[in-house]
Amino acid sequence: MHNVLVTLVLCCLLYSSTAPLESFVLSVIVTLTLVVLIEVFILCWFCQEFTTEFSNVLDAAYELDWLNYSPKLRRTIILTIMRLQKPPFFTMAKSTRLDMIFFSNLLKMAYSFYTLISKVN
């Protein structure tokens, strides 16, 4: 639901920025659009980096020379590797995965709605 709301906000801001407005109102609309974009971008970028760092930890665990370690430490490393094979990720409303793919899809959807509204008017 949140992604639809952000998309609609972006679409409305884009559409209102194309209307003939005073320069102050236009600058406020452009600023709001940039704030919304930056907010969503930072959130998606952080979530993407978090997931990427987990895969880096998995790679580092694979590269260990763990066969020469004690049996207890080997079991711990094996369990860690098994847990890291499915990296954690952040979701929105338990359904939408937050990453850069989500951000690009959000931009595409907002632009699609904007072009639809522009062609209708």
From TrEMBL:
GO cellular component, one term: plasma membrane
Subcellular location(s) of the protein: Cell membrane
Superkingdom of source: Eukaryota
Alphabetical keyword list: Cell membrane, Membrane, Olfaction, Receptor, Sensory transduction, Signal, Transducer, Transmembrane, Transmembrane helix
MF annotations from Gene Ontology: odorant binding; olfactory receptor activity
Membrane among keywords: yes
Signal sequence bounds: 1-19
Pfam families for this protein: 7tm_6 (PF02949)
Residue ranges crossing the lipid bilayer per the database entry: 28-47
InterPro entries on file: 7tm6_olfct_rcpt (IPR004117)
Membrane topology annotation: Multi-pass membrane protein
GO biological process, one term: signal transduction
Protein name according to UniProt: Odorant receptor OR39
